[in-house]
Amino acid sequence: MAKILKRPKPHGRHRLWEHDAALCQEHGSLVGVDEAGRGAFAGPVVAAAVYLPKEFFEELSFKQATRPIFDSKQVSPEERDALFDKITTWCDAGHLRFAVAQGSVEEVESHNVVGATVLAMTRALEGFNLPLRVPSASPLPLFDEPSIQPLPHVLVDGRPLKKLRYAHRGLVQGDAKSLAIAMASIVAKVTRDRVMIALDADFPAYGFASHKGYGTPAHQAAIAEHGATLYHRATFLKNTLMPYSSSNATESQAIFPLSRC
Fold first, then answer.
1. For residue 101, which of 10, 83, 124, 150 is within the disulfide window of CB 3.0 to 4.6 Å?
2. Neighbours of 38 (CB within 10 A)
3. Where residue 206 sits, what CATH number does that domain have?
4. What residues make up the domain containing 238?
5. 245 pLDDT exceeds 80?
6. For residues 48-59, b (16+ Cβ closer than 10 Å) or e, as one string?
7. DSSP alpha helices (H): ranges in 35-76?
8. Is residue 108 a contact partner of residue 45, using CB atoms and an 8 Å limit?
């Protein structure tokens, strides 16, 4: 039987800080990457990358301030919004950086959801305009020149992604173990939720603001009654809701601009 990984209780969440502080001490900086919307029936896959330099962990007041930051699925929407605002404030002050990008519904259909996730994560990582290690790159010299800044250590939530072009380490349940990944989890989730809330204004019959595009019974009933929009993932619907109608597909989806701080 597979071992079930336990998530840290709130009083143990300093472990996320300590985990990343140790990595930053070793590597100089860290990037955490996570996504939201991978299992939804509608809407894009949204990925976020959060860059933490080692100086972030030298400011001890941040240790207590980051304690509420955890897997976005484990905090309420109100808490997520407040934490997103806090992360944005730190970003604006130059203490950290983050970037957000998406894999569109069209890309989910063309490349499957894993491929679209890889595209979104790649765009988010490239949003920093920072040098990143690629697996095929020559190793760094044994003795680096003093002017060469160490490349960030990249952590991705879950298992490693073979098609992600940048060198990274997968961390299963990373949003409950790594502060950078937990921050990325919150940024990705809040960003995607706001995209779906905006879609709700154009397609009020589907309840996007409530279920955010996931396959709830109410969402399935709305699709059965009104058909699918072009913001729905046709392949997902074919596999779960056959037959379905796309007669109400009146708009095409577009990649929203890359967001970075």
1. 124
2. 16
3. 3.30.420.10
4. 10-134+145-243
5. no
6. bbbbbbbebbee
7. 61-65
8. yes
